């Protein structure tokens, strides 16, 4: 049996936070569960007094499909899937021996009238992948509200609920979606059209060499030009129209951009919660796990696009310790970090460091 049990503790009236309980009562739990099985098997021929004696202090089932237990012992799961009302715990029962329950403050003891839908449960034992990859839940005191709602022009996260505020970035780009902001750096003349040469110069300013910059031009414009065109006819110059950049969204990605180019905070936070154990950085190995975990079936364009984008991100940031910081990755989504990197490299060249 897994020694780690998932609990959700009420932190205050407005939110909940999840904590880990490494039970020292695992053996006792199994022992009580075995005794429950014995009581169920012998219930036809055994009296209530015998069952009470057999349970070693745990009262027998009174016919209401509800089992009680000593206050300090872990709850026992009923096989009929019923929910149990404990002294300080409200167990969320399941027909598949679910070991998840909700612990509340004494003054907020939950009752049988509360439904499962009222409780946020991120993981269940019968589906181990849900334990390995847990979605993000905002902290009770977080300023990030409605994380699942896409933001049109603000790349909001729990650490940056108002997006990029440096030089009033979000306000100055309130006429663009976050995906359009991501592409703006490469539109040097601000005409809303990215030519192949614009992409080449942009990648070169970000530190990519001649070969990698040419490769980026080929990959980006060969795949992403046609969906953005204002007509059905292909463009011989392979230009990209920023106004239609949302049509370039591909599968097997993180889902941080929605289909209209907005920014979804929940999906961004899920990247780090699921694949980086909630840290504020990602390693190249974390990226590999993420690419594998986000793959959709029969989606070679999406696989290749996601691989190209995240490898380019790592090469551009090139962290000395191998850690891509969360804030830098967020800055790539709204494009603000591109200007910082380009300015830093230009300054280094001016002073002879490159």
What does this structure look like?
Belongs to the caleosin family. It comes from Karstenula rhodostoma CBS 690.94. Residues 23-84 are annotated as: Disordered. Residues 1-30, 46-79 and 83-117 have low confidence and may be disordered. α6 (196-205) packs across α7. The chain contains 12 helices and 9 strands. β1 and β2 (16-22) form a beta hairpin. The chain has 2 domains: 4-132, no CATH class; 166-350, no CATH class. The strands form 3 sheets. A 5-stranded mixed β-sheet has the order 2-1-5-4-3, with no helix packed on it. A two-stranded antiparallel sheet has the order 6-7. It has a two-stranded antiparallel ribbon with strand order 8-9. It has helices at 26-42, 48-54, 128-132, 169-172, 178-184, 196-205, 210-224, 265-275, 284-293, 300-317, 326-334, 336-350, and strands at residues 4-10, 16-22, 84-85, 89-91, 101-103, 193-194, 240-241, 281-282, 324-325. The chain has 354 residues and is an alpha+beta fold. The longest helix has 18 residues, at 300-317. Helix content is 36%, strand content 8%. The termini are far apart.
